[in-house]
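Practice problem 4.
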């Protein structure tokens, strides 16, 4: 995990306003896994403003392009399934089979559901 001390806002990595961090610990053995940034209300406001701006243009994206994006996210997630499962295992202190089958695999299942739902929906913008 290392140090995740920036937020991805508006298409770029930015430092949080407060600069505060906290450790991420494995609850099963107390091992320190890394450090994450703590956000505050200003960080949330920046992220919401960026998301609002992105929504304005993304809402004009065609159904085909949205489906292609969802399929790409699924492809990358499936390729990195073991890495995701291991990260979840360490962060939660859960058995690896639980992390693989109930968490990482579930994420793929959710993406499959989004893809199927999007595929069957009418092409509407906004």
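Answer key:
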């Amino acid at each position: 995990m290392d140090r995740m001390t920036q937020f991805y806002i508006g298409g770029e990595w930015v430092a949080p306003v407060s600069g505060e961090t906290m450790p991420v610990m494995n609850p099963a053995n107390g091992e320190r896994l890394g450090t994450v940034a703590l956000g505050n209300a200003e960080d949330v406001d920046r992220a919401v403003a960026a998301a609002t701006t992105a929504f304005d243009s993304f809402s004009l994206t065609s159904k085909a392009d949205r489906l292609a994006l969802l399929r790409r996210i699924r492809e990358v997630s499936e390729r990195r399934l073991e890495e995701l499962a291991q990260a979840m295992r360490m962060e939660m202190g859960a058995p690896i089979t639980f992390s693989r089958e109930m968490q990482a695999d579930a994420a793929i299942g959710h993406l499959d559901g989004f893809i199927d739902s999007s595929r069957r929906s009418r092409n509407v913008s906004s």
